[in-house]
Amino acid sequence: MASQQDVPDEYLDGYVQAVADASATGRRLTRDELDARRALGERAAEAGLGLRALVAAHLARTHTGNIGTRVTVDAVVAAGAQAIDAFAEGYERAQRQTMRREEAARREFIDDLLYGRSDLGKLAERAERFGLRLSGEHAIAVARGDSAYEEGDTVAREVERAVIARFGNRNILLTTKEGRLVCIAPGYQYEVLAYFAKQAYAAADGGGQVAIGRPQSGPGGVVQSYEEALGALDLATRLGLDTPVLRSADLLVYPVLTRDRQAMTDLVHHTLGPLHQARGGAQPLIDTLMAYFDAGCVSAEAARQLSLSVRAFTYRLARIHQLTGIDPAIPADRYTLQTAVIGARLLDWPADSA
């Protein structure tokens, strides 16, 4: 940062004369004089000079004796304060405008990066401005909370400070997108995303969930990793998964199962459709199967989850066997039932059976 000795005279131009003229009569600085100070403040900010050094240079000029000998100290101080305040106002206004332009450019870059809406070569060039080198692998973590995250809100700032304090900001980008926190990091630095996930979950008081996409190469890979993370969050919602941190690599079986949606729909209707004949409909028996599989096929644990006696739970399993002709106790049958139950979750069946 420049010292007061490094401040060019052009940014002090007219200061002594304006203060001298105003303090000689005790008047306030005119609008033109104030506007001139504001304009110089804007120019100084755009030139990258430090405000503290600029203020110090102004104060030094005030004490050179050039103001005049027939003026009171109070008058000089009052006129100098007006001039410096106007200069600082212009400086801060220019800084705000620069910050808005930078933020707009950053948001535009993030939109283009995550949605792949720009030429990949130009996107890679723009990325270097924000500390990213897209030639290598990157992975993305996406965090959601009970409420939407906004850029600059308390949680977003806390998480960003924690991550940057530990890893620095080189080749790491944190932002918000559509109410979620997003962290982009090199694919080989998985510890960055793991730490981000830990901080985001803690900042949300345990009410959030984080998904991590697989490392992918190049600018297009960033989009793919981002979409994988979003897909993992969507799967968690549809399947009722409450795991704090989801890894898309651990959930690859689900996209495979749903790749042929018609085949999955046929499997669900053919396998589970007969459960509609049960008293109370299919849903209680679907819940029974979900609890059974989630509990590792341990009836006692599944019964506890559903607040049922073991006898009542085993009766339900027997009823499922009776209606479907498929026995959950037989491994081959169990695989068919479990796949159908997963499909029911993904298809929101039977609620969306139409």
UniProtKB/TrEMBL annotation:
Any Pfam family: HTH_30
Record domain PucR C-terminal helix-turn-helix: where: 285-341
Domain CdaR GGDEF-like residue range list: 116-235
Coiled-coil region list: none
Family stated for the protein in its record: Belongs to the CdaR family.
Official protein name in the record: Helix-turn-helix domain-containing protein
